[in-house]
Amino acid sequence: QVQLVESGGGSVQAGGSLRLSCAASGSIFNINRMGWHRQAPGKQRDLVASITSGGSTNYADSVKGRFTISRDNAKNTVYLQMNSLKPEDTNVYYCYAVSNRFYWGQGTQVTVSS
């Protein structure tokens, strides 16, 4: 089992920045990919960014150039630096990890006001 604990959400004005953190614990040695999805009420959960154990990254087109995903292997933590935030980035952000299955964090709210 893998446990994921997220932090760093909150409210910010358009153009501002936030950094999300996701700390993994438990059976972490088999994790090969971590990342973030986001979900608005009534909508599907969409990929925001991911990073593999080798450091390869992938981003949704809507966040390229504004968001940066990184990981600290010593701390088993993944970060999502979000800059130039827009009101349409308002969502619940979910951390995930992939080993033998998908694991999800509890979600953290990000609200961007215009």
Task: Describe the protein in words.
The protein has 114 residues and is mostly beta strands. Helices cover 0% and strands 57% of the residues. It is built from no helices and 11 strands. The strands form 2 sheets. Strands 2, 4, 5, 6, 9, 10 and 11 form a 7-stranded mixed β-sheet that branches. A hairpin with a 4-residue loop joins strand 7 and strand 8. It starts with a strand and ends with a strand.
List keywords for this structure.
114 residues, mainly beta, 4-stranded antiparallel sheet, 7-stranded mixed sheet
Topology of this protein?
Blueprint: E1 2-7, E2 10-13, E3 18-26, E4 33-39, E5 46-52, E6 57-59, E7 67-72, E8 77-82, E9 91-98, E10 102-104, E11 108-113
Parallel strand pairs: 2-11
Antiparallel strand pairs: 1-3, 3-8, 4-5, 4-9, 5-6, 7-8, 9-10, 9-11
